């Protein structure tokens, strides 16, 4: 337990106890409480949003020149770096990821603020070609109050990914972190305050999604929602947004195919496949959870992946040697176990895993062994539905045409991986596979300068990239008349 005290939340520039129920954030590696807090209630939601709207109109944040807001964002990046280690440790406790991963997430959050500060300072509006006696321009304005709703799997990074561009654009931001991982968003609010973001511009409202997230989305003063989470929740938010005519971006689920061709560098491919599905315990939207291997090398390749999966170090997230930590909650582990049972009932064979690992310190946490299932088709439910855990379905393929047909046969289209030394084939497959991101001879690499998002049930809109700031702005066209005479019609 970090502290017995109830942790305050951040409502409209004030640190105070939420008006909702008290709850605990548990360390997934032991089940022990690491923080107690009171969730936000509906009155907190309304107050945070009304006062965010006031701060947007009166604090001067939106009116600051780009380089002035950029300077504040640079300070946020620096403060995150100054506190990198304690933040990484807190993130480890909040969601149970191994310390090496949480350090990378913290570094990524700092990098995101730095990138959007630079992007903001160098962002250009356009003068469009004139078609009459006027000068035409396209400019962008901040929206007002926008909301960032995030899941529990990579809190500080996904919160920074929304907060940085939304603040860069000059908005006020209501952050709604996942109920089970509230701590990093609160830390980011504290850091923004210390960096000079005006009071009321950032609020953090932990609580139940169906109550707090829903109320934020429906609030008339909220002008945009940036959501990352499950597809069902994303669709719910999209319905509300349609009624409000409100833009949304939705980063949703995935069931990403990884394709290993005969000519692949197998050492690299084995590593990439393992990392793609088992890092973050598979709790990753872009997890490469469907593996297609050329039939000629299938047995050799899957044997190597299975041996390497067995050897993964599952355990204490505090250890730098640990490769896989626990799952987020006991309930989530049960849902993964049900999926594996379903895969077996559909005719699948467990090549490795399919159990809770035993060993020192593993009994209390929500650990699950890296699992590989074989003997299933791409149409099995476990090949089609997102498990969001360390479960890989391996399938052989015979030719490129059936490979692409199967890879694309999914409601999801978030990411894909291709392993081949033949760049022409990799190019052909890379263009044919339907996915928001395609990795060729690598997997699960990210760059904040490159847009990210999904097709179909994997989402709408893109985050990251220089243009990411415009996602949080309204576009406006301006015509400056240069006529010497009155408009002819009026005459
Ligand atoms: P979730 O959809 O249950 O919750 C995500 C967030 O939405 C949480 O903050 C939750 O409290 C809130 N929420 C829940 N119901 C809501 C409602 N009715 N209205 C408004 N907000 C609501 O998802 P999760 O279980 O936290 O996260 C796992 C999912 O997130 C997986 O499907 C995963 O693929 C997806 N994900 C996607 C990406 C991406 O970038 N595409 C990244 C990470 C996770």
UniProtKB/TrEMBL annotation:
<dbReference type="InterPro" id="IPR029510">
    <property type="entry name" value="Ald_DH_CS_GLU"/>
</dbReference>
<dbReference type="Pfam" id="PF00171">
    <property type="entry name" value="Aldedh"/>
</dbReference>
<feature type="active site">
    <location>
        <position position="251"/>
    </location>
</feature>
<dbReference type="GO" id="GO:0008802">
    <property type="term" value="F:betaine-aldehyde dehydrogenase (NAD+) activity"/>
</dbReference>
<dbReference type="InterPro" id="IPR016160">
    <property type="entry name" value="Ald_DH_CS_CYS"/>
</dbReference>
<protein>
    <submittedName>
        <fullName>Betaine-aldehyde dehydrogenase</fullName>
        <ecNumber>1.2.1.8</ecNumber>
    </submittedName>
</protein>
<dbReference type="InterPro" id="IPR016163">
    <property type="entry name" value="Ald_DH_C"/>
</dbReference>
<dbReference type="InterPro" id="IPR016162">
    <property type="entry name" value="Ald_DH_N"/>
</dbReference>
<comment type="similarity">
    <text>Belongs to the aldehyde dehydrogenase family.</text>
</comment>
<keyword id="KW-0560">Oxidoreductase</keyword>
<dbReference type="InterPro" id="IPR015590">
    <property type="entry name" value="Aldehyde_DH_dom"/>
</dbReference>
<feature type="domain" description="Aldehyde dehydrogenase">
    <location>
        <begin position="20"/>
        <end position="477"/>
    </location>
</feature>
<dbReference type="InterPro" id="IPR016161">
    <property type="entry name" value="Ald_DH/histidinol_DH"/>
</dbReference>
């Amino acid at each position: 337990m970090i502290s017995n005290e109830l942790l305050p939340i951040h409502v409209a520039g004030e640190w105070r106890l939420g008006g909702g129920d008290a709850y605990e954030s548990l360390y997934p590696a032991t089940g022990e409480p690491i923080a107690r807090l009171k969730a936000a209630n509906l009155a907190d939601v309304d107050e945070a949003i009304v006062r965010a709207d006031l701060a947007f109109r009166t604090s001067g944040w939106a009116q600051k020149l780009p380089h002035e807001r950029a300077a504040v964002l640079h300070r946020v990046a620096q403060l995150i770096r100054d506190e990198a280690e304690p933040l990484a440790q807190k993130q480890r406790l909040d969601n149970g990821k191994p310390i090496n991963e949480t350090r990378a997430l913290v570094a990524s959050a700092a990098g995101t603020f730095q990138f959007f500060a630079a992007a903001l300072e160098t962002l250009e509006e356009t003068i469009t070609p004139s078609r009459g006696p006027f000068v035409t321009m396209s400019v962008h304005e901040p929206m007002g109050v926008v909301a960032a709703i995030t899941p529990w799997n990579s809190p500080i990074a996904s919160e920074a990914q929304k907060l940085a561009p939304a603040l860069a654009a000059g908005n006020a931001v209501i952050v709604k972190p996942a109920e089970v991982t509230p701590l990093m968003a609160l830390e980011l609010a504290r850091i923004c305050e210390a960096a000079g973001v005006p009071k009321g511009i950032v609020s953090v409202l932990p609580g139940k999604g169906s109550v707090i997230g829903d109320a934020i989305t429906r609030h008339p003063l909220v002008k945009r929602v940036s959501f990352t989470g499950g597809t069902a929740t994303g669709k719910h938010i999209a319905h509300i947004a349609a009624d409000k005519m409100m833009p949304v971006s939705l980063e949703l689920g995935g069931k990403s195919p990884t394709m290993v061709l005969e000519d692949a560098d197998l050492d690299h491919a084995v590593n990439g496949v393992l990392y793609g599905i088992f890092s973050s315990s598979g709790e990753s939207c872009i997890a490469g959870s469907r593996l297609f291997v050329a039939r000629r090398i299938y047995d050799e390749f899957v044997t190597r992946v299975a041996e390497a999966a067995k050897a993964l170090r599952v355990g204490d997230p505090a250890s730098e040697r640990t490769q896989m930590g626990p799952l987020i909650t006991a309930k989530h582990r049960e849902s993964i176990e049900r999926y594996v049972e379903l895969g077996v009932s559909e005719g699948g064979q467990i090549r490795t895993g399919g159990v809770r690992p035993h060993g020192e310190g593993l009994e209390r946490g929500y650990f699950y062994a890296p699992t590989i299932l074989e003997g299933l088709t791409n149409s099995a439910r476990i090949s089609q539905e997102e498990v969001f855990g360390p479960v890989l379905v391996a399938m052989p393929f015979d030719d490129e045409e059936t490979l692409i047909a199967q890879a694309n046969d999914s409601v999801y289209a978030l990411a894909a991986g291709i392993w081949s030394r033949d760049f022409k084939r990799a190019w052909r497959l890379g263009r044919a596979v339907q996915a928001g991101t395609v990795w060729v001879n690598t997997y699960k690499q990210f760059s904040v300068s490159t847009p990210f998002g999904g097709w179909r049930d994997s989402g709408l809109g893109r985050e990251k990239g220089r243009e990411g700031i415009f996602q949080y702005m309204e576009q406006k066209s301006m015509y400056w008349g240069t006529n010497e005479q009155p408009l002819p019609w009026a005459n």
